[in-house]
Amino acid sequence: MHSSSPRQTSPAATVTPSALGLIGNTPLLALDRIHPGPGRLLAKAEFMQPGGSVKDRAARAILLAAREDGRLAPGAPVVEMTSGNMGAGLAVACAALGHPLVVTMSSGNSPQRARMLEALGAEVVLVPQVDGAAGQVTGADVTAAAEAARRLAAERGGFYVDQFHAPEGVRAHAETTGPEIWAQAAGRVDAWLAAVGTGATFLGVAAALRAHNPRVICAAVEPEGCQPLAGLAVTNPRHLIQGTGYGSVPPHWSEGLMDLSLAVTDQEVEGWRRALATREGLHVGYSAAANVAAAAALLRSGRLPADATAVTVLCDTGLKY
Ligand SMILES: Cc1ncc(COP(=O)(O)O)c(C=O)c1O
Whose CA is nearest to atom 14 of ligand 1? Predict the structure, then answer.
């Protein structure tokens, strides 16, 4: 008798039909080196998706829904305002589905983002900043970029994605990210934390986890001085946490899903970002570091049981900052 052949011992034959199939099902990672306790800090490795961020999920969901109900015709252009990540997710989905993509972006976002989008075939239109600075994009900057996108969509007869108002973003996280976390953590989730851009990640996951356990503590992460979700006046709209903390409550916000808001400073974010890279081998972006900073602070605060599990999200790769 021959021992089992390589063919018999190789994994089951599976072919992923397109890059759309690389979106979702990210690992849930233990950050035991930078947070040895109390409790356990777990993070969803969203930077591993083909566009490099958590936004791939919303991008795929919005485009597939629009194609399904006829708002997006085959081959028609797609237009969106982005801080970079939604654009990358859309660029991946547009390439796989056969749509040209035009994105508007505040010039305050890092130039690496524009280069990545162009490499993925997108046309990038940079919009001058209103009151922000390089690397610090404010709500007014984002509004200006969104207005430019709306104008371009009308001019080109394109589908305007409008991520802040599209219901499919929240739904994508309620149907994929949340259930993945619950299953990967084997139902042991005491707290969920995330920084908020459109709010799709925070809200969708919070809703899914609460459906399993209404006692899961859900905490929004906000930049110090820019905490509208905490009900505070915005005293400093400039901060490092690109893609989040725009100084206003996003349209889909649901107050009932937030138990508390935790503030983080730029200095804390820088420190945790460095620690994630050098002690965990995870070179991630600023919102990921903000989430980890807030989760570690919550676990240390005494508000949770000593053996609690806090789950957050590593939103994007650090390679494009
Ligand atoms: C780096 C980064 N982190 C976090 C977020 C927030 O995600 P959401 O829009 O789901 O709130 C974004 C959104 O663009 C982002 O670019």
Answer: 243
Residue 151: CB atoms within 10 Å:
13
pLDDT score recorded for residue 9: 60
Ligand 1 and 57: CB distance under 6 A: no
Q: Which CATH class is domain 55-160?
A: alpha beta
Q: Which residues of the chain have pLDDT under 50?
A: 1-6
CA of 197 to the centre of ligand 1 (A): 5
pLDDT in tens, 160-210: 999 999 999 999 999 999 999 999 999 999 999 999 999 999 999 999 999
* Residues 32 and 65: beta-carbon distance below 8 Å: no
244 lines ligand 1 (CB under 6 A): yes
Tell me which of 62, 141, 201, 312 to substitute to probe ligand 1's pocket, judged by most ligand atoms within 8 Å of the beta carbon: 201
The predicted structure's pLDDT at residue 52: 95
Is there an atom of ligand 1 within 6 Å of 317 CB? no
pLDDT of residue 248: 92
Closest CA to 321 of 281, 292, 271, 287: 287
CATH number, domain 19-49+174-320? 3.40.50.1100
- Residue 12: the pLDDT is 79
Q: Are 132 and 18 in contact (CB under 8 A)?
A: no
Does residue 55 line the site of ligand 1, with CB under 6 A?
yes
Residues 95/68, Cβ–Cβ less than 8 Å: no
Tokens of 190: 């005491």
Q: Number of helices (H) and strands (E) in the chain: give both, helices first.
A: 10, 10
Q: Is the CB of 196 under 6 A from ligand 1?
A: yes
Residues annotated as part of the active site: 55, 287
All structural domains of the chain with their residue ranges: 19-49+174-320, 55-160
Distance 110 CA to ligand 1 centre (A): 15
Q: pLDDT by residue (tens digit) across 219-252?
A: 999 999 999 999 999 998 888 998 898 889 999 9
